[in-house]
Hints:
Largest sheet: 6 strands, antiparallel
Structural class: alpha+beta
Mean pLDDT: 87
Order of helices and strands: HHHHHHHEHEEHEEHEHHHHHHHHHHHH
Strand content: 5-15%
Low-confidence stretches: 479-490
Shape: globular
Amino acid sequence: MKKKSQFAKYIDYILKGSLLLFALSAPISIAATQIAWSICLLCFIIRCFLGKQNLPKKKIDFVILAFVLLSLVSSIFSYEPQVSLKKMVAVLLVTIVYIFAENIRNSKTLHQIVAVLLISAAFVAIYAAGDFALGKNVKVWQMTENSPLRMIGVKENDTIIRANGQKIHSPEEILKLVNETGKVNLKIYRYELFFDYEITKEPLLTGNNSAEQLGIVEWSRGRDIRAAGFYGHYTTYAEVLQLIASLALGLLIISTNGRIKILLTFALILYTFALFLTVTRASWGSFVISASVIILFGASKRTILICVACAIPLILGGLFYLQQKRNVGFVDTKDGSTIWRLVVWREGFNLLVSNPRHLAVGVGMDSLITHWQEWKLFDNGNLPMGHMHCTPLQFALERGLPTFLVWLIWMFIYLKMLWESLRKNNLDWIERGILLGAMGGTIGFLISSLVHYNWGDSEVVMIFYLIMGLSFAVIRGLKENLEETQPVTA
């Protein structure tokens, strides 16, 4: 019995370390985060066998279980069962909620996990800001009339991203490759679009340096590429920042400690600036809505007025920056990405209602990848093949209306739990800040989900589940405290 108790203690140490590793890795690396999740899950299962793990039994837990089971049913009846069943691994990421909720047993652990998550995210935001400040690639501002680059299709204000697949940061690197290989493929970034051009030795000019030989009069390091942190895509990073910035804002609004307020303010500035650099409209808008909810429900009237005064120039500056970097308005029906979404939304809805089977169990997760030609999706292949760019539509189409409705119920109950818990008075400031930040972040996340399939990004959903797990831990602790203080009646 003693050995078993000692073994359980070691498992607890490993589990706590893995929880902290998860929080540290989540803003940085999906691979490290998934490793931490795997270790946490293994420890969680071992604790269940040892009888040391509480199993969830609340209404929302059964709703989440129904969501998982309906996703499994959809996968079994999928047009591509093997493909869809593999996606069940991503569905099971929801276990993150319970790994955190059921294993944060004291305020110290809760505070440590929150601190590690915020510090890690701040580090990545500093990296994004530094990357922007230093610049990268080659931004071509001005070229001669007979520039070899102009002759092959490069335009002024274009940014040269790669040469023969290699990242480049100066004209010298381009010229070196041309001289070595005789032919170089250039990847060019121009207002959200990428172009490939080919340059050879023949049209090179004579000159004293590489820029002159390429016909470049003025160039600099580029700052056009949207910030992506350590992730592979700016939208993923923007969605993560919205969630973490909302959590930080919730804590900042509630905190009464001057030094902590300064640290949280500094962190929030970093997150907001990094979010600004992603130039992702939906995430910008969702954070504005999230921040509005947090401030309205958690701040004094004076703080609300100050925040509104600060927000106005930031919003105007954001709209100007958006126009400069992406050449679009915030809501722009002529924008290619907007037109793209309108097309796939119509196609997805038509496919959903075209067959009772689709309404009941969906077409199956990721079956669009192999059947899009049969269903004539993505404008018959004229648009980039992917997904529906709308989480509700994606759920309904891939998993059926029952799964979609259960997901809606899940989100409704979760938000209701957050709201009811915030109205209680026996929470410390960090607990209240977590709930407030989670509520705002969730509302922002759901708003953004209307134009993004953010539930399809494992990096994003893991942080969403992490914050939900923290919230569940706070709410569970609150309920235990209430039960302990209730008088016993005969």
